[in-house]
Write a structure and sequence with these properties.
Elements lengths: L5 E9 L3 E4 H5 L6 H8 L3 E4 L6 H16 L8 E5 L11 H7 L5 E5 L5 H14 L4 E8 L9 H4 L4 E10 L4 E9 L7 E2 L11 H4 L7 E2 L1 H23 L8 E4 L4 H11 L10 H4 L6 H11 L8 E8 L3 E8 L4
Parallel strand pairs: 4-5, 4-6, 11-12
Antiparallel strand pairs: 1-7, 2-3, 6-7, 8-13, 9-10, 12-13
Bound molecules: coenzyme A.
Length: 327
């Protein structure tokens, strides 16, 4: 079966209170609102405050999704946190979130960078199909990992979390999925130090290697090509055409990337969800945050056919079709 009979029962989001506009950034960076808006479509983003870690954002989104589903923590069998910015290198962030919900269920992190939510949806829907109620959270505090003085990167990212509750449901459709990776050039988008190959030390921490580095132009080209090809792959696998897609909810990295993918697919821009203008790039949190936006805008109805597509460091990419059955 190409689509799994799994539904989104609930959807939730959390965005930190602090909104940072392009003009705010231009006060200490050699940049401008005009440059950022025309190159990326971003107008503002949220920054977590110093007391907040990724798990705090994740927990708030998780609670909102459970409330939305009309479920309680006790209904959850498995908790997955898709993140590339965990609270600590060890342990994973998911057990902290589970503990915040009062749970001792299976809890683990999944890191596929900005593709993490779509990867997580594939894993979670397999578990849900097998009978589990799964809470999947995409949560990031990427602003902690950027060099605030690097204008080419600091303007792009924001913090936030989004969550979904998945359960098997007759008649629901999730999939097919297309996931992929290419690890031959990891330096295209990476943080060099802090892992087993090059651990952190106090001296290294003062070095740019402990901040996110990126070759933006290369990432841009790969993002457009991979998201387009991956979207076509799931449409082909489902025997569907782009005309069958009611709404594309792509990873919200850059408005120009979303527009280029939509154009190549032949999808009218009005069928493309845009949240990057207010969120910036929230990595694994961007798609569930965009889903929450889409619903608030009245764009998600039972039966709405969604194309989710993502791209991130790794490189990683992933897409899936999903017929909205949730509230
Ligand atoms: N404000 C003003 N100028 C800036 C700037 C900023 N925030 N950031 C970079 N610039 C400058 C550069 O220094 C460069 O100046 P130079 O020509 O004097 O060297 C100039 O703007 C052009 O830089 P360039 O990198 O060619 O711009 P671009 O049009 O390619 O846009 C990105 C840069 C990062 C917006 C674009 O490459 C991009 O969106 N890439 C994908 C990034 C992404 O989405 N990553 C996450 C994927 S999950």
């Amino acid at each position: 079966m190409i689509a799994r009979a799994v539904a989104v029962l609930g959807l939730g989001a959390y965005l930190p209170d602090r909104v940072v506009t392009n003009d705010d950034l231009a006060q200490h960076l050699d940049t401008s609102d005009e440059w950022i808006r025309t190159r990326t479509g971003i107008r503002e983003r949220h920054h977590a405050d110093a007391s907040q870690a990724t798990s705090d954002l994740a927990l708030a989104a998780a609670r909102a999704a459970l409330d939305d589903a009309g479920l309680g923590p006790a209904d959850v069998d498995v908790l997955i946190v898709a993140t590339t910015t965990p609270d600590h290198p060890v342990p994973a962030t998911a057990p902290t979130v589970a503990a915040g919900l009062g749970l001792e269920v299976a809890a683990f992190d999944l890191n596929a960078a900005c593709s993490g939510f779509v990867y997580g949806l594939d894993v979670a829907s397999r578990l849900a199909e097998a009978g589990a109620t799964v809470l999947l959270v995409g949560a990031e505090t990427l602003t902690r990992y950027v060099d605030p003085d690097d204008r080419s990167i600091a303007v792009l990212f924001g913090d936030g979390a989004g969550a979904v509750v998945l359960r098997a449901q007759e008649g629901a459709e999730m999939g097919p999925f297309d996931l992929g990776s290419d690890g031959t050039d990891i330096s295209m988008l990476w943080m060099r130090a802090g892992g087993s190959r090059e651990p952190f030390d106090p001296v290294a921490h003062a070095d740019p290697s402990s901040r996110i580095g990126m070759r933006g132009g290369d990432v841009y080209r790969h993002a457009v090509a991979r998201m387009t090809a991956s979207s076509r792959a799931v449409l082909d696998a489902a025997g569907r055409d782009v005309a069958d897609v009611d709404l594309m909810v792509g990873h919200q990295a850059n408005l120009r990337i979303l527009a280029a993918v939509a154009e190549r697919l032949g999808l009218p821009e009005e069928r493309c969800q845009v949240s990057v203008d207010r969120h910036g790039n929230t990595s694994a949190a961007s798609i569930p945050l965009a889903l929450v936006d889409a619903r608030a805008q009245g764009r998600l109805e039972p039966g709405t056919r969604l194309l989710l597509t993502a791209f991130g460091g790794g490189l990683t990419w992933g897409s899936c079709l999903l017929t909205w059955g949730g509230r």
